[in-house]
Amino acid sequence: MKLNNLKQTFILGLGIIMTAGLTSCGSSEKLVSTKSQGEELIEVHCTGSEYQSDKKHFRASAIGESLDQMVSKKKAGTNARAELATLIASTIKGTIDSYVNSTELNNVEQVEERYEGLTREVINQQLNNIKVICEKQTRTTQNKYKTYIALEMSAEDLEKAIELKLSQDEKLKVDYDYNKFKETYEAEMQKLESKQRGF
């Protein structure tokens, strides 16, 4: 009888130890919140794949913060426009370099400078034709306003405006090949899309 009681006590004790062990294992496997690790996940509005450039659109996002609501909006807009202008200028520079290098022109440097000067004018004009595709405002715990904004410009509209400007230029008209320029521009837009998508 005593042996039987001892056996039952041992089995009961073993069961309690195993249950406690499993419970503690389960609790250690629970996900630890990032906040307790000194990090906090934040949501950044007007960003993500739908706000990235693709072969049909140039897009840029930015944030502006201020104690004044309108100032935060202005800062966000200015930052996004600057980002958009940089992205467009870089793509057009790549297009001009590739286009000029693929043609047999005299005075390559002069031609490149002429193209860059004319396209810069067009870019500045086209920056007036941008569209706001996302805009959100929040207020922080410090009573500051935060504006999130995403802007977009049509790649086709820009290409048409550049084509018009280049075809009207007396110095470039003789050597300008619209189809070749268009093809080079579209290849640069495809590169931009791939870069933005990360592949």
The pLDDT mean sits at 83
Uncertain runs are: 18-30
Instruction: Determine the structural class based on helices, strands and strand pairing.
Output: alpha+beta
Shape: elongated
- Rg on CA atoms, Å: 30 Å
Number of helices: 6
Helix and strand sequence: HEHHEEHHH
Strand percentage lies at 5-15%
Domain count, please report it: 1
Tell me how many strands there are: 3
How far is the N terminus from the C terminus? 75 Å
Keywords: Coiled coil
Protein name: Lipoprotein
Could you describe the 3D structure shown?
With 199 residues, the chain is α+β, with helices and mostly antiparallel strands. It is 60% helix and 15% strand. It has one domain. A hairpin with a 5-residue loop joins strand 2 (131-139) and strand 3 (145-154). The protein contains 6 helices and 3 strands, in the order H-E-H-H-E-E-H-H-H. The chain has a 3-stranded antiparallel β-sheet. This is Lipoprotein. It comes from Ancylomarina salipaludis. Keywords: Coiled coil.
Give the key terms.
199 residues, 60% helix, alpha+beta
Question: In short, what is this structure?
Answer:
This protein is α+β, with helices and mostly antiparallel strands and 199 residues long.
